[in-house]
């Protein structure tokens, strides 16, 4: 009875190819490979979108650093105030406000920059086609 149960269990398992993967997985990978291919323009736009995201992140970090430094220098150096324990919640509120401003700069920079990048890249490609007299009526 054990041998028959073992044979039934073997029949229930999917067959694996010689390379160790399932045959269905190869078909899925091949079909996904065609879907993942990008045009040159899509690749460049993706690269540009990543660059815009990084630039927005850097600008938001610089904004937060400048705001914190301005607050610290103005409060503790120019006005010569002391860091008092009872004023700590007020200072923390300022730092949270500066962080929120930095996040706002980041959120605004990324979506605003991408359409601009797409427009510039399309305008550049049309200009190059005009120079080369490369026109197509039908795809």
Automatic annotation (TrEMBL):
InterPro entries for this protein: ATPase_P-typ_TM_dom_sf
Molecular-function annotations in GO: P-type calcium transporter activity; PDZ domain binding
Keywords (A to Z) from UniProt: Magnesium, Membrane, Transmembrane, Transmembrane helix
Transmembrane annotation, as ranges: 57-78, 98-126
Region (Disordered) location: 1-38
SUPFAM superfamilies: Calcium ATPase, transmembrane domain M
Record's GO cellular component terms: postsynaptic density membrane
Keyword Magnesium tagged: yes
One GO BP annotation of this record: regulation of cytosolic calcium ion concentration
Keyword Transmembrane helix: yes
Protein name per the record: AT2B2 ATPase
Organism: Pandion haliaetus (Osprey)
């Amino acid at each position: 009875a054990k041998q028959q149960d073992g044979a039934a269990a073997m029949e229930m398992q999917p067959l694996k190819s010689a390379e160790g993967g399932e045959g269905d997985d190869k078909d899925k990978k091949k079909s996904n490979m065609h879907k993942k291919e990008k045009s040159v323009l899509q690749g460049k736009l993706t690269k540009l979108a990543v660059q815009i995201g990084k630039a927005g992140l850097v600008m938001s970090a610089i904004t937060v650093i400048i705001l914190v430094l301005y607050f610290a220098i103005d409060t503790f150096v120019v006005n010569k105030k002391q860091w008092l324990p009872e004023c700590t919640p007020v200072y923390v509120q300022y730092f949270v406000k500066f962080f929120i401003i930095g996040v706002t700069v980041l959120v605004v920079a990324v979506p605003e920059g991408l359409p601009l990048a797409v427009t510039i890249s399309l305008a550049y490609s049309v200009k190059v086609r005009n120079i080369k007299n490369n026109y197509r009526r039908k795809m």
